[in-house]
Design goal:
The protein is mostly beta strands and 652 residues long. The protein has three domains: 158 residues, Trefoil (Acidic Fibroblast Growth Factor, subunit A) (Trefoil), CATH 2.80.10; 279 residues, Glycosyl hydrolase domain, family 43 (Tachylectin-2, Chain A); 161 residues, Exo-inulinase, domain 1 (Jelly Rolls), CATH 2.60.120. A hairpin with a 6-residue loop joins strand 36 and strand 37. The longest helix has 10 residues. The protein is globular.
Length: 652
């Protein structure tokens, strides 16, 4: 057994006969041998080198797919035998001596050292991001000039944790809280490490296909966008977002190469089922204008000049977020030339605070993550979407020229809460008038989520162009109505300030409406969901016509967590309606409650995803839901209804 394997066994609790262990970030720096490493030189141009333990110089940093039963997001960085060529790694400093990049093996070249924030393991990760402090490192030197403490950007010190070495380890963290009883039941695709959906596609037989990244493009198929089954083995394309394109010459998957040095393409060898693929090959390389982040290719499209194009999200070296465009030699999509930037964003539309609260103060846009662009509704308008790290945005505008260029005319937020990294799906033909469905997941930072539930793909959403011709309408798919439980409906023909009871339980659909000749100047239409019978706990979700709930002067959709979770969450999320005229004489509020995952929509104009973690003091089945309206008499007529929503089995 190699030292690396023994290291993993020791952490897992199995017997071990060596001091080798995972370099952890939970020791108190005290300059003991267990906390010192021989690091590569940080002088520009210095050769790559292994990182050795000062306590045992025969042990070097190597890699494994998992450590101590924990699967790392990239690969786990472990201590192992320096001579073990199967797992050995060399490193070099980059970005003015603040990033540690892998130099070898070649399969991991360019990956960055990253602190796994969930369990404090070290890992190598394919993406290196400017704003991630857990990827920034500094070193403190000691007299011989070669041995260093290595500190993370979060002020943890790297240390070799072992029973026979002096390492001042603080008390272990408390055991994880048990899985919440409020985990979602009708969002079927959930997993602890789940993130961006890739390549949504509706085939000619009526099957929807989507690939999510946690399993290296694990394949899911569905006829109704609700009940999903696994469509075959994982493609193994890797953990970064991509797309599936269809041309007269075949079906092709595009996915980023792991260290973001380019984009690979694999042809389908089973176009009917999309379960098998040919070997991937590099077809797009990073252009000179692009910085370190280059990934998330979008679906190829054919333009009026007869050429096929693929866009790739990138950060421009001039510090902007770009949709880099590449022109294919033909519809086999195997050779590309760089065609410039199709679209550039220099600043964000507001920013997200604490992971889920939108603030109206813009920041600099440095990366176009998970981009998409497509014609909308046969109107001549196009819609682009992109995640700019702090915001998940849409733009509506026009496309012209050869090569094509996108000119945005309006901008907004795709989801004002925990909806992130969206991709859209449509038919193989991808005609402008074909249905367009948005897929996304619940985001990277989930401080308010129900414990132990993992992340989820949000309910798919239809996107159409609004009657104003300048903004999209985004609504939950109508197929979801099939999950309403027969006999569970509760209707409220007229709403007032006294809360009216709705269908009880943790999985409900609430629909409420107010009609008016002019938008009310004050008052709200709101529900208390997941409430205890005594009213001590609830989450308030609704529309505040004055906008005061978020400090706005326009109507705002909101989710107020302050009474939801036994005092551990006081977040108030808001989604302002920038132009109240878009409400058009009525407010249609849709609230989808699935345990701690709540999705809210107002007229399709704004959407907001909330994550809450109710206490277990009252069981989910005993939770109640109510609806009320505090609009002045005569200012609006309000009503509502609710249904229980049936659970959906997890994919098999």
């Amino acid at each position: 057994m190699s030292a690396l394997a023994l290291a993993i066994a020791a952490i897992a609790g199995a017997p071990a006969t060596t001091a080798a262990a995972n370099p952890m970030t939970d020791c108190v720096c005290s300059s003991s041998p267990a906390e010192l490493f021989l690091l590569p030189s940080n002088v520009s141009g210095a050769p790559a080198a292994q990182i050795r333990s000062q306590a045992n110089t025969s042990l070097c940093w190597g890699y494994a797919k998992s450590a101590g039963g924990t699967t790392c997001d990239g690969v786990c960085v472990m201590l192992g035998d320096c001579g073990d060529s199967a797992v050995a790694m060399t490193w070099r400093w980059d970005r003015n001596g603040t990033w540690l990049r892998v130099a070898s093996p070649a399969s991991l070249s360019g990956w960055c050292l990253d602190e796994n924030l969930e369990n404090h393991y070290l890992q190598a990760y394919p993406s290196c991001n400017e704003g991630d402090t857990h990827q920034l490192w500094r070193q403190d030197g000691f007299p011989n000039g070669r041995v260093h403490e290595l500190w993370s950007g979060k002020d943890f010190c790297m240390a070799e944790r072992s029973a026979d070495l002096t390492c001042n380890v603080p008390p272990p963290p408390p055991p994880p809280r048990p899985r919440s009883a409020f985990c979602p039941t009708y969002h079927p695709i959930t997993a602890a490490g789940l993130y961006d959906p890739s390549g949504p596609l509706l085939d000619d037989e009526g099957w929807w296909h989507v690939w999510e990244d946690a399993g290296g493009w694990s394949h899911y198929v569905s006829r109704d966008l609700l009940h999903w089954d696994t469509g075959g083995p994982s493609t193994g394309f890797g953990g970064l977002t991509g797309s599936v394109a269809v041309t007269p010459s075949g079906t092709f998957a595009f996915f980023p190469e792991g260290n973001q040095k380019g984009v690979d393409m694999a042809p389908s060898t089973d176009a009917a089922n999309l379960t098998t693929w040919g070997k991937g090959a590099r077809v797009i390389t990073v252009p000179e204008m692009a910085g370190a982040n280059f990934r998330d290719p979008l679906r190829a499209f054919k333009w009026s000049d007869g050429a096929w194009y693929v866009g790739v999200g990138c950060n421009n070296k001039s510090n902007s977020a770009d949709l880099c465009l590449f022109q294919a030699a033909d519809d086999r999509l195997s050779q590309f030339t760089f065609a410039g930037s199709m679209f550039t964003a220099t600043e964000t539309y507001g920013r997200m605070e604490n992971g889920g609260v939108w603030r109206n103060d813009s920041g600099k846009a440095i990366m176009m993550e998970c981009p998409d662009i497509f014609p909308l509704g046969g109107t001549g308008k196009w819609m682009a979407i992109g995640s700019l790290y702090s915001t998940n945005q849409w733009w509506v505008g026009t496309v012209a020229g050869s090569p094509p260029r996108f000119s945005p005319e309006s901008v907004g937020i795709l989801d004002y809460g925990y909806g992130y990294a969206a991709k859209t799906g449509t038919t193989r033909r991808a005609l402008p008038t074909d249905r367009r469905v948005v897929f996304g997941f619940t985001g990277w930072s989930e401080p308010t989520a129900a414990t132990g539930c993992g992340r989820a793909l949000i309910i798919p959403r239809d996107v159409t162009l609004g009657p104003d011709g300048a903004s999209p309408r985004i609504n939950p798919i109508p197929e979801l109505q099939a999950l309403r439980v027969p006999g569970s409906e509760v209707t409220v023909p007229s709403l007032g300030p006294v809360p009216e009871p709705l269908t009880p339980g943790p999985a409900v659909w609430v629909s409420a409406q107010c009609s008016f000749s002019a938008v009310p100047a004050a008052g709200a239409l709101f529900a208390h969901v997941l409430a205890t019978a005594d009213g001590s706990e609830f989450t308030e979700v609704g529309v505040d016509f004055s906008g005061a709930v978020g400090g706005w002067t326009v109507p705002a959709l909101y989710a107020n967590h302050s009474a939801c979770c036994g005092g551990r969450d006081a977040m108030v999320q808001t989604a302002p309606v920038a132009d109240p005229a878009l409400l058009g004489g009525h407010a249609n509020l849709t609230i989808l409650v699935d345990g701690g995952l709540i999705e809210v929509f107002l007229n399709g104009v704004v959407a907001l995803t909330a994550l809450v973690n109710p206490t277990n003091a009252t069981a989910p089945a005993a939770r109640v839901n109510t609806l009320a309206a505090t609009v002045a008499a005569g200012a609006a007529a309000c009503s509502g209804a609710s249904w229980a929503v049936a659970p959906v089995p997890a994919p098999v």
